[in-house]
Design a protein that fits this description.
single chain, alpha+beta, Arc Repressor Mutant, subunit A, 4-stranded antiparallel β-sheet, 9 helices, 21% strand, globular
Amino acid sequence: MSGHSKWSQIKRDKGVNDVKRGAIFTKMGREIALTARAGGGDPAGNFRLRLAIEKARAANMPLDTIKRAIEKAIGSGEGDQYEEIVYEGYGPGGVAVLVEVATDNRKRTVAEIRSIFTKAGGQLAASGAVAWQFEQRGVISVSRARMDPDEVALLAIDAGASDVETSTDPLEIYTEPGDLEAVQAALAGAGVAIESADAAMIAKQTMAVDASRARQNLRLVEHLEDLEDVQRVTSNLELTDEILAEVAG
């Protein structure tokens, strides 16, 4: 999981400054609406909604926009009705890829995703083909600035975390899905400054490919993430420091 932290940070940095801020807000609005519709519109009683709001605020999404998304989701049923689907596929070199979407038109979305896979030299796969290579985890990111990594690790483990990556910046704390809320609350209560907390699919093992195919896979991920219906793309691609530096630059 050691590459997850750096890649996540690069994507956050690029995303917040992206000229496609409107598209980012659209994706976040859909996530907020889905979580509100599923678990209620009160963030105090809906942890998943609270996480979605925190991500939106970190990207400077206006509070009024967030409130409208919640009100629309729990209102009279008017407006778009989205469904959550996970598509699976293979990138160049056999890299496993998961594509999480929120769509109001399943046929349109799958056609767009299949086209991107094909053009990238990969292929869309059947349900279950690659999902077994991933597991759902809670992921909490903590900046190393002014924090002792070993102290944070001890606090996290005592709170119920299953693993802590202390060699990265930010620090990455992993939990079982059901323990994410408790670990986040314990760390915050201890004065730990949390950069982000979210549920994510994490590859059980990463897959190394040559530099050319690594770049092809990263372009595949970027093109998938450009689709309005796509909420998150995850792969088991092993990213070298060279490739990460190239992407960050």
